[in-house]
Amino acid sequence: MEDPYRPKPADKFTFGLWTVGNIGRDPFGDPVRPVLNPEHLVRKLGELGAWGVNLHDNDLVPFDATSQERDRIVASFKQAVADAGMVVPMATTNLFTHPIFRDGAFTASDAAVRAFALQKTMRAIDLGAELGASTYVFWGGREGSETDAYRDPRDAMKHFREAINFLCGYVQEQGYEMGFALEPKPNEPRGDIYLPTVGHMLHFITTLDHPLMVGVNPEFAHETMAGLNFVHGVAQALDAGKLYHIDLNDQVMGRYDQDFRFGSENPKRAFLLVKLLEDAGYDGPRHFDAHAYRTEDEEGVWAFARGCMRSYLIFKEKVRRFREDSEIQALLNDLSQQDEAYQGPRATGTYSRDVAHALKQHSFDSDALGSRGRRYEELDQLIMELLLGAR
Ligand code: GLT
Ligand code: MN
Ligand code: MN
User: Fold this and answer.
1) Helices 153-174 & 111-130, crossing angle to 10 degrees?
2) Are 10 and 50 in contact (CB under 8 A)?
3) Is the pTM of this model over 0.90?
4) pLDDT digits (tens, 9 = 90+) for 172-223
5) Given this model, what pLDDT does residue 282 score?
6) Which pLDDT does position 2 carry in this prediction?
7) CA 273 to CA 255: how far, in whole Å?
8) Domains and CATH numbers, the chain
C-alpha cells in the first residue's frame, strides 16, 4: 500500500539551505556535522519529496566571493535545483553573521553600516530574482539592542522603515514579481529585537510607503519564545491578508530559539495550526525553519527533515478526520445552534441607529446566559483522543 504520509511537491514543503545544512554549532560547542554542499542538500530534499529550497545569499555565495565566483556558483546551483525538480520560492539576506552587523543592519546607528546593508540586500534580491523567488524574507536578527543607552528606539523604527521603503522601490523599478515578508522575533541574538511579534510587525507594515507589497513571515518558535499563542498570531496575519510566508518548527516556551522538528513539542498546537492553515486555504509554501538536534549525524538530519513533512501530513489527515468525525461534528453543531439561537438585535458590520435603539431596550436573560457551559472539555478531549490515536 502506498504510504499516505509520503510528501509530494504539491504539498509545497520547503526547507532553507541553512536548516538541513545546520552543522550543530552553538554558543558552547563546535560543529558536530560537516558542511554539506548546497547541491547535495537540494538533491536529497528532492528525493525526500520536498517542493522547494530557500536560501540566504551567503548560504550559497560566500561573503567575500568575486563576481566571477558568484556567477559560477549560482549557475551550477540553478542547474542542481532544476535537476532535482525543485524550485526556490523564497530568498533572504544574511544581515547577522559578519561583525559589521554587531549593532544592527538597517537599524544600525552607523550610517555606513546601514548603507552597506542596503547594498548587500539589493544584490541578494537580484540573486533571489535570478533563482525565481517570489517572496523575500527579512529577519532582523541583529536589529535590536542590549542597552538603549545610546540609540533612541524611535530612530530604529525610522531607519527600518526607510530601508524597507527603499527596497520596495528597488524591486518595483527592477520589475521583479516579489513580495516582502517581515519575520518577527522577540530576542536572540540581540538582548531585545525591535518589532518582536507578529502584532508589532502588522502595525509597522501599515506605516510603509508600499504596504501592499509587504506581509509577515511568522515563526512558531519565535511567538512561542515570547509566551504567545502562535495560532492566534497566524490568524491575525491571515485576517489582515498578510500571511505571505510561514516558518514551521517547534519550541518550548521561555527557552532559547530551539527550532525543533515541527510537531515535536506541542502537537496539539501544531494540529490546530495545520487546521487553521488548511481551513483558511493558505496556499503558500510550508517552510520548515528548523534543524536536527545537535546529537545527530547526517542520517539524523534526513530523519529530521522527513519527520517535519510527515508530521504535517499526519496533522492534515487528523484535520480531515476531525471534519468527518460524527461525534465531533454533532458537538460542534449543537454548540453553534445554541450560539445562533439568539433572535434579538445584533451588531452587523455597520452602525445603525435603529439597531442601537432596539439593542438598548432589549431584555436579556442574563442568568440563563451566564449558566450555560461551553462543553470545551468534551471537545478538547475528543481532539486529544483523535491525536493520540484512540479514535
Ligand atoms: C535564522 C533565523 C530564522 C530566520 C532565517 C532567515 S535565518 O536561522 O533563526 O528564524 O527565518 O533569515
Ligand atoms: Mn525563521
Ligand atoms: Mn527560529
Assistant:
1) 30
2) no
3) yes
4) 999 999 999 999 999 999 999 999 999 999 999 999 999 999 999 999 999 9
5) 98
6) 85
7) 21
8) 9-323 (3.20.20.150), 325-387 (no CATH)
Residue 58 contacts residue 97 (beta carbons within 8 Å): yes
Residue 1 has pLDDT above 80, yes or no: no
Give yes or no for a cis peptide into 4 (omega within 30° of 0). no
> Nearest CA to 63 among 14, 38, 89, 99?
99
111 CA from centroid of ligand 2 (Å): 27
CA angle 36, 55, 159 (to 5 degrees): 135
Name residues whose C-beta falls within 8 Å of residue 326's C-beta, 6 or more positions apart in sequence. none
The residue written with cell numbers 472539555 in the block is 377
Tell me how many helices (H) and strands (E) the chain has: 15, 10
Instruction: Answer yes or no: is the C-beta of 289 below 6 A from any ligand 1 atom.
Output: yes
Measured CA distances, 279 to 202, 283, 319 (Å): 22, 11, 9
CA distances from 5 to 181, 209, 266, 317 (A): 29, 43, 20, 9
Size (the chain), residues: 391
Say if residues 44 and 80 touch (Cβ distance below 8 Å): no
Mutate to test the pocket of ligand 1, among 14, 17, 255, 289 (most ligand atoms within 8 A of CB): 289
As residues whose CB is below 5 A from the ion ligand 3, the structure lists: 221, 257, 259
In the chain, the amino acid numbered 30 is D
Q: How far is CA 381 from CA 313, 321, 375, 384, 385, in A?
A: 22, 15, 10, 5, 6
What is the CA(218)–ligand 2 centre distance, in A?
7
**Known catalytic residues?**
56, 59
